[in-house]
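User: I need a structural model of Protein GrpE from Pseudodesulfovibrio profundus for a docking pre-check later this week. Nothing fancy, just the predicted structure tokens so I can convert them on my end. Input:
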Amino acid sequence: MAKHKDTEVPINGLYDEEGKMKDASVEQDIPEGDVAEGAEEVEGEEAFSLSQDELEALCRESVCPECDVHKEAEAIKLRSLADAENLKKRLLRETEEMKKYAGESILADMLPILDNLDLALAHTDGLDAACKNFVIGVDMTRKLFLDAVKNHGLEQVDAKRGVDFNPEMHEAVGTVEDGELQNNQIAQVVQGGYFLKGRLLRPAKVMVNKA
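Assistant: Understood. Predicted structure tokens for Protein GrpE:
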């Protein structure tokens, strides 16, 4: 500390020898090297402050479209888009199919009811007149039931005596020799078959003629 006019004046670079404060607007000398180093640090901080999307955008802009890296990246992108589109189509197709055949299990459980009605009608020969009304009632019940399930897409497989055997919708459970029929024709229907909206739900079980 230096004294001036009986007053202690701190000598720390802010005051002159007379005790007056120096001009604050005067900038202190800073070495050019320090300034450059500080600027580089600031620029480095700004560079590392970029987001991931911004960095990827800069990389894409700096990659030549004709180089192998760019071509490979474009090929990967196209394959990914194609895979995503195929997956979307497959999911839509499976969803539509699921909706279309949603009642398949329920209708399949109802087929034995039709089988029993068909079986009852198949054994009506030789009944007396007193059972005639009963047979008519069973036949009407079968028709009503069949009409109801038809509204949900259930249709009978064409399996009648004299129809050619078709392994795509008929199942042979045995063979017979019938001179009235040609070879490989249906001689008898054991159990009816059904389609559900064009898809085979159950094949018709038949006896096939082998002449």
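Before docking, keep this in mind: Residues 1-5 have pLDDT under 50 and may be disordered.
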